[in-house]
Amino acid sequence: MKRPVLIILSVVVAFVLVGSLLMNLFGPRIGQTYSEISYALPGSGGGGVPEEFASAPMQPLSDEVKNSFIAQSQERMVIQNADLAIVVADPKTRMSEIEALAKEMGGFVVSSNLYTTYYGPNSVEAPEASITIRIPQEKLDEALKAIKDGAVEVNYENRTGEDVTNIYVDLQSQLKAKQAAEKKLLEILDAADETEDVLAVYTELQRIQSEIEMLKGQIKYYDESVALSAVSVRLIAEETVQPVEIGGWKLEGTANDAIQDLIYFTQGFIQFLIRFVLYTLPALVLVAIPLYLLFLGGRKLYRRFSKSKAAVEVKTEEKK
Asked: Alpha-carbon torsion 18, 21, 23, 27, what sign?
């Protein structure tokens, strides 16, 4: 009985040795360090810079690169906006207070809307409002604090910033180029004598001047967007967010806990399924294949050994 066990162990050891040998031959060398790899790459460490790049002449900087350098030296231009929703006792009164706040800070109201919403099982009416204001960017923090003061609850608050420095510098560069072309065309127009020349120059001048006005409009837009931040506020009536009460029992806590537990269970179950399908199941298959092959090989050897042993015993009995 000991001999089949030794045969099976020998097969397992041989399988491990062969697998390790194949990994060493065809896999990456574990001992190879990052410095050895990077040394062989061109342009890093000992590889040096290829001759075709070293001998290439320096190219002039493009307009984009020049504008990038100019933008780095210029004060950053960032458009900052905010969006929030607050729960208040009286949306209409609160909207009027925000309008007054915008004017007090040197801003203005972009839009305001007062409407009716419905809540509860009996579709009870309640007021709701939305308002968008623009205020000086340096007063944005102060304005947000004033808007949230006195609120029952802040449902959400989102503040965004967009750096438009590169765009602004590019527009200014285009404007300077167009203005230089306009000046040159005016000089040519003054010196032109032929009617056809005058018409051709005048047509081109009109096109350049139209593009100049468009560039000025875009620059003005960015100037105003950076100087004045937009704040959008949604005003929710307090009664619409009150918990449902049945017979003096508020269901808010129990319902919230149940829904939250369901969400956690769903997330955990989905994560388990994804991990099982993508990792656990393939790993089990990869492990099972060689083990099954070893089992088949061991069983075949064991059967062969058993047959030979039985044959020897039969011959021994016959001789007796």
From this structure: negative
Per-residue pLDDT tens digits for 157-215: 999 999 999 999 999 999 999 999 999 999 988 888 888 888 999 999 999 999 999 99
- 8 token code pair: 């099976």
Q: Which of 212, 217, 223, 143 is nearest to 182 (CA)?
A: 212
Q: Which CATH class is domain 73-165+228-242?
A: alpha beta
Return d(Cα 276, Cα 181) in angstroms, integer: 67
The answer to whether the pTM exceeds 0.85 is no
Distance CA 187, CA 100 (A): 53
- The set of residues, in sequence order, having a beta carbon less than 8 Å from that of 137 and lying 6+ positions away, is 80, 226, 227, 228, 229
Residue extents of the structural domains in the chain: 2-30, 73-165+228-242, 168-227, 243-274
